[in-house]
Predict the 3D structure of the following.
Amino acid sequence: MEDRNIPMNEENTEAVLVDAVNEETLTEAPDVEVEKAEAAVTEQLETESEDTEVPLDKNVRLMSPMQMVIRRFFRSKLSIVGLVMIVSLFLFSFFGPLVYTRWGEIELDESGTVSYTPNEIVITNPDGTTTTIYQTTERQEKDNYLAPPSKDHILGTDEQGYDVFTRLMYGGRISLSVSFIAVFVITVLGVILGGIAGYFGGVVDNVIMRICDVLMCLPGIPILLIISTLLEAAQVDAKYRIYWLMIYLTLFSWPGTARLVRGQILSLREQEYMVAAEAMGYSTSRKIFKHLVPNVMPQLIVQMTLSLGSMILYEATLSYLNMGVKAPYAAWGTMINVISTNTDILQNNFNVWGAPGICIVIAVLGFNFIGDGLRDALDPKSRR
Amino acid sequence: MLKYILKRVGLAILILIGVSLIIYCLIRLMPVDFIQNKVNAMNQSNSVPADAVEKLYEMYGLDNSGFMGIVKGYFNWLGALAKLDLGKSFVDYAPVSEVIAKNMGISFAVALIATVFEFMIAIPLGITAATHQYSFRDYLVTVLAMIGISLPSFFFGQMLKNVFALELGWFPSQGTLSGSGSATGLALIPDYLAHMFLPILTVVILSIGPRMRMTRTNMLEVMNSDYIRTARAKGLTETKVIYKHAFRNTLIPLVTTLAGLLPSLFSGAIITEQVFGLDGIGNIALNRMMQGDIPFIMGYNMFLAMLSVLGVLLSDLMYVIVDPRVKLD
């Protein structure tokens, strides 16, 4: 048997004919038969229309399921838009700081302005005359804070005097990498525990599912607030705290994935090819991870993409509540945090808080578009 | 039916005990020390005698932060809960259940009004999107719903606040009441509504997306079924086909979601309430969390957990009631 390394449903290993040849000739028949059938078709074609000398394999393009998925994915405009959004955000955050080195993440713009305030002091002398003293106060603002967008600062500076544009790039690094790490850990935990629960059933299944029930009932934000104060007490470096926080978040978030995997495996377990695998005497881990899990992959990939978006939202919310990345380091949520106390900036400096907000929306929207496109592309029922 | 419900309730109690154990351990490990903060606030010169401080710790049941102390504290809490007593809030000196009940009203009002509008807007949109699948209208509705899902609540809330409260001045930007003081009773309602408008708008826009998509998916599924073809073949008008035959069947999942949603109406929206300074349960909980008010945090989190258990149970039961094909196992 040929070993397809493609994560698709077994029933879905069919071929798409680009040009007109009836579909029945190419199905899941063994290789030899396909060759015979092809030969037959070729003969037929040759006898029917002798002037066309194009061999059949030029007319017919076989597509693997993976190619079909890719084709369907790129047919949807929204998924392309999503892909463009995510790729450009990635380039912006990971290569941006290498190209745009004018300012650093925690580099203050100290080119402050000097202002003079004239004071007029009138003193009445004992003899009735008045003396006027003119005094000027020199006021030097060291940090050039809340500067409007200019050539020097593309998006201006924030209330501390940091360059907003630069911090946007560094903040993107945090948001994107954190969400990828979190989703990766959630998926690994979910696949292993869900796979075990679904495959073995019985007591193991019951125990794992009850743990899932408990974890799903834990209120997310309050629990993370508590954990965040714990991390603060443990004096975790401000720069890495958000990573720790997200790792803890994964400990509460794997049940969703585990349930999905378990549900799929419960139904797949009963299918004939699993009986065949049993008859071949494969080991349990091979049956689970080589035969069952790949068939859950379509749903899993969709779920992963969509949860990338929600993880970015989670991270941003935590940072906004000042629980994640803390100043002076930048994260998109942290950059918006300032307006929760300062209404002046909220009203007058959209460049400071609007830009990171828009970045968050683009990132989440991008992942949602891609996830949606993938869902349609991977669904064998949708033929579009 | 009764047996099934009893079984589920028993399971729910087990789940809640697990949840409470996790939350209690986490809270007791929290470094925010209510007593220390209180003593510090009482006098700056540290002249409160050490034994008095110790006594305070003992009074609040926080004298032993070791493993045994936490276990003992947990069982004390559980024992009190068995007598339906959630303990007294450190900050308010009042029973936790009272504090929750007092602040729940405004959160509930916001959530209820928001949910009504959500369904009223999302269902028609979902239906048009489904009946005009792959048309411009479908794409527009889908994209708008996606944008709604992708907006962070704090960002969108602040944006609305900036535009409608600070720039245009149409609505108050902070608080629950303007506190002019003279009005009482029913006369306060317009004032409440003015303060609640922007939070409601935020919640509605952020949560329309999922409902609309659900309506659309279900509607599409129903529109492809055989009896719709039959209805069309009979020569019924399209409106009749959609609203009389198709829509009634898409109601099944909508009603079950609604049942599952009911308990969460009481839980409060932490971020939205924080943005608009609304004195709802979520905002209060956020404040208490920072102050280390252990009984309140415990009570609030258990309240949330209970609501979500109840939500799942209600939506499962609703499914059986609405859809005669579903049988209880």
Remarks:
- Chain B has a mean pLDDT of 81.
- Chain B is about 75% helix and 0% strand.
- The radius of gyration of chain B is 25 Å.
